[in-house]
Write a structure and sequence with these properties.
- The chain has 311 residues and is mainly α.
- The protein has one domain.
- It contains twelve helices and two strands; from the N terminus they run αααααααβααβααα.
- Strands 1-2 form a two-stranded antiparallel ribbon.
């Protein structure tokens, strides 16, 4: 097992909670009369079965652009880009919750979407420009449901099947062959000071004891002195991470099956993705990197087969 049982349970729980929030947000925008705010509503004439080509092209363009920006050290631009995307995604999620629970006390909906931004902007700022593990992981729970709500209306069942296969092949290449995914993760953490995905640092018993002794020794010292002491001590902390793509594609898949097949097939997809992730965590070994999407995709394909057999 790559991580200890406690950390594995936390990652699985966060993954599952995000899936549940995602299904709620997708269901809200699909079944209510509320359009996606912030100009995110797709064109009425879009074809869900042929839009996959445009999505794959846009995905490849975004990866290429991000790669080029890292080469010219455009950290400020990248942070601004991620700040805008994060704000909109969180706003979409919060907007769904506000309208659902307040039962539209204000009219029109635009006023509520502005209120959602009032909450989304500071959360996005804290995530992108300030380092706080709790804020980081909390905002992750809200980001991917909002993004998924944008993609579900423009994809069909065939489209998501093709997309999952394409993303899995890319994941295998990026993790096991080019090492692009590892380099991108390190770039985010070292240069951008944030990470797109769940991020849990944890330490073993001996390291925890060492940290405790250092804190006691330097508790009355300045922050700079404490930071220097920790750097000199060369304390190694384990990192449990799960990339954003590994979180969002199962949400999109479950949302599409909810749209075209109903709640039970969507729940089957959600459960199969969670079991696939758990299988990966059990199979994985410490110190090694694994592409999660192939495991999730195979699990979701099996879930699709089960739902088609039953329904």
């Amino acid at each position: 097992m790559k991580h200890n049982i406690k950390i594995t349970i936390i990652l699985i729980a966060m993954f599952l909670v995000t899936q549940i929030i995602g299904l709620f947000v997708i269901n809200f925008y699909e079944t209510s009369d509320t359009e996606l705010p912030y100009w995110m509503e797709p064109p009425a004439d879009i074809n869900p079965e042929t839009s996959i080509i445009s999505i794959l092209f846009a995905f490849a363009l975004a990866i290429t652009l991000f790669f080029l920006l890292t080469k010219i050290n455009a950290e400020k631009f990248i942070r601004g880009w991620f700040f805008v995307v994060t704000t909109i995604a969180i706003g979409l999620t919060i907007n769904a919750f506000i309208i659902f629970f307040l039962k539209n006390p204000l009219n029109p909906y635009e006023y509520l979407s502005i209120i959602a931004l009032v909450f989304a902007i500071p959360l996005a700022y804290l995530k992108i420009f300030k380092r706080n593990i709790l804020i980081h992981n909390f905002t992750e729970l809200l980001i991917y449901p909002g993004i998924a709500a944008v993609f579900v209306p423009i994809l069909g069942v065939l489209g998501i099947i093709i997309l999952l296969l394409a993303i899995s092949l890319y994941d295998i290449w990026a993790v096991w062959h080019s090492k692009f995914m590892q380099n991108m993760a390190r770039y985010q953490m070292d240069k951008l000071k944030f990470f797109t995905g769940f991020f849990i640092p944890y330490a073993g018993t001996k390291v925890k004891q060492k940290i405790k002794l250092l804190r006691e020794k330097y508790k009355n010292k300045s922050e700079k002195t404490r930071d220097d002491a920790f750097k000199k001590a060369k304390i190694k902390v384990n990192l449990a991470i799960l990339g954003g793509g590994d979180i969002i594609f199962p949400i999109i898949t479950a949302g599409i099956f909810y749209k075209y097949a109903g709640l039970i097939p969507a729940l089957i997809i959600m459960a199969s993705a969670t079991l696939g992730l758990l299988f990966l965590f059990i199979l994985a070994r410490k110190g090694k990197f694994y592409p999660a999407m192939p495991f999730l995709t195979i699990a979701m394909y099996l879930g699709m087969m089960v739902s088609w057999i039953i329904f």
